[in-house]
């Protein structure tokens, strides 16, 4: 199949290599033209602009967006809306909010253009060698791209999830679970690190990654991280986040679903951004007021 | 009533003044003899030792311990066990663990000596002007001291709670609630502090302390703290703890009672003791492994 | 001062009585005309419609909305926007979302009409005998109504909080704290209820309400509730919520403020709405899969 | 290697089959003699009693306990202490508390007998086909059994963790992480179940188990559970627990380690045991007291 990938960052770059290795023709575009040129040397067809990328495709055109969630997606959808024809297919493979995907679906549908919201999990390695893809949107559009999707995901690691938004919704929830799992792993190692025992953390992760109930890719990655830095002495425990955990909690609140573990994993990320906290100051000051307990001065 | 106070720290000192102002005779002892001498000038009878304090009382002797929870209580109970006679009454007014109070009760009961576990809330001001007291142990021993207890607690702010340990158990739970309330207040002010609005926190605490649903002594103290330091700039948000919150949670776990707010208020105290966290490092390292997300180097 | 109250539910009705008892002239209107008639017998001036209420006032007119948060506020603001004149003052005393209050402020400001967002705490009793009011909006509009505000709030229980939205924002945070405090109290009693001791809960609440660190109105109300039903046997532990706790958490998430206690108190409310949970089924099924642990069949 | 397995429940039975399939000689004993007889038909040597099992071994004897944590372990350790000789090795492969394992290690060491605390993860399938084993105790004892351990754990899924107790400590933490992960998965599916989308949960688990960041054995098991019962309609969401999660949290508290996700996953298990809650009643009653909000009557 011939298609265009717009956005050649960590995910889009690897996805393009994956597609090429399965004999698909990929028109590659990025605002940083060096990325497309690099992929050109790997067999992709570099495009100089969005217009150029569209022009290099034949109907029904398939355009895969692999850009960060946010305004840039809307800009591209607007631009493509003017360039594409009925029957063409736009895929958003990024981490967009599912409500925005529903809006974009409606916007393109008004022009007869299909929009598929594709949640992609598996990191850079997944993009390159086989990820997990959750795909919402019109079934006929999905059917058109399924052979290509099958090629780039090993072991049938993809799912057509139904109506518009359901792919990104599912990916959002996946990330919420991921937050909880990662925090759980982190907490376990924190207790080990504070304990009286002197464990080799890489070996702990290795043994847990083999045969245990908690084995899985995250544990493989935990071992890999500890192999590089046995006690993680070189890094700070600042946990950034890029939105999906927050969206998951907000969605849970809207649905009145009790999700304490997802909530706490998100809140501990926020806590990690602050060196000191105002709530801590208030509590310390109160303890001093009623009990004369000493406070720590700055 | 004539009684001895052993331990003249912040709480014992103020309690002695409270008793003296209600015309009770107080034999006062502390390892730091200057404390008893000071109270001697206020009308107390200074004692040079535990033996001396006991010798200065008449049967049935009433001895009130106001010392930190822990070994020192056991040492005093052992010492008093040898010095006292059947019918005498030992009061533990500190924050002892209720299980230890039950053991001490049994130990003294074997000698015919009463033991009352008295949980005391209200801080230093309460000790001085009227606290809240929760009293477990033999009813007849309570009946003997009730007139004195009534004097030092305004508005009948005391309760005979029944069998041995029930006083300290109730105080423990009180402190668990206190942890939750303080954390709730702290969190509220943290959101205010991070918001786009520029509130005068002392005024906020003042208005909340007048007529609102959340009015109470903690809010009065919050106002007082902000009056001294408008943004609490001079202190660090390190939240120490002295045991009762932890005991409350441990007890809740034993009883399989779901207490998420008490649990989280305790865990945030522990979190505040660490400048950086190991769980944060693990999560940051994992994000880097699967998604190539940048980590913050030390 | 002469003013109109629109909305004579639990809060508006009591607020009207409060104003009347301080010799203010109150034009009273509710969709249920019997409420205005009732208040007419107490000295209020019943109005037959919003138009009638406005007509009964003189410039600068003061209109106080005491209606549930939501669409009805917008309908009234639109209606009043057409009826009022520059310099008039609309007060929203309900629990509106602060962002909506900012929008309404802007909408009325375009017509020269003042809008004050007044967060009101203290329950029905507060509305009647003196509440806590947090007031955002134009300072000159506040200055105009301050004498009236002073009358109906004892001990200066009001605060001008600054720009539009800041009153409702502060009330929102107040409610977030309230959620945390209530859950903390509830958890404490749950541990008592599951403990080996047989406490008289009304007496426990009474003693905690007198002299303790956690004394306050919520503890007074706890005592009152237990006096009516010693073990709360007649009611179910279903905890409904009306929005402010959710808004507080959503705001905290937007500000990246770690508020675990507020979060958990909200999530436990949602949890209480479900008799059974899907997350529980998943965990139970997983335990069965890996360990053969028995599941409970329906 | 020749060794005895005491305790032929789900784990011990499968472990025996595993050992037999690797040509080890297994003396098998259980209080239910039919279990040993059954395994006798598979090639094991049935023993009629603990004494008989010991008598059937040659020095240095290796005895593997596979019984539930608790008193039964102490009874067996006492019994074996009298039957065994210096140099013999007792293995506790159950989920004992690490502090008890240290005590048992000391008790047997006084007689010259080795004690290895072996945390075993992987469920029944792991016991049968290759689990994950974490082994604390004397290194020489470990060295003696390592060849056998290697046989029954694929991919080197075992780790010698050092001094006594460190094996069971590590297994305890493993289970704490497991609690967090399972709750995270459960919460994710709860949000899906409450959402507007109609997902096929088995297919969701399948796709997440292939290529995603959260792939792992728990996700495989999630798929398996949903294949049997698409919406888990037949079971109740009651989440029992057998101790390790509680011990993990208690240990974290002792070490002042902030573990909110592990804490909440445990507390939600406790919450699931109650059809109604007392904290919910208190909160509902309080809302009624201050705001007149309706309560749900029983």
Automatic annotation (TrEMBL), chains A, B, C, D:
InterPro entries (alphabetical): 6-PGluconate_DH-like_C_sf (IPR008927), 6DGDH_YqeC (IPR004849), 6PGD_dom2 (IPR013328), 6PGDH_C (IPR006114), 6PGDH_NADP-bd (IPR006115), 6PGdom_BS (IPR006184), NAD(P)-bd_dom_sf (IPR036291), Pgluconate_DH (IPR006183)
Top-level taxon of the source organism: Bacteria
GO MF: NADP binding; phosphogluconate dehydrogenase (decarboxylating) activity
Pfam families, A to Z: 6PGD, NAD_binding_2
Keyword terms of this UniProt record: Gluconate utilization, Oxidoreductase
Signal peptide: none
One annotated GO biological process: pentose-phosphate shunt
Domain 6-phosphogluconate dehydrogenase C-terminal stretches: 167-298
Record-linked Gene3D superfamilies: N-(1-d-carboxylethyl)-l-norvaline Dehydrogenase, domain 2, NAD(P)-binding Rossmann-like Domain
Name of the molecule in the record: Decarboxylating 6-phosphogluconate dehydrogenase
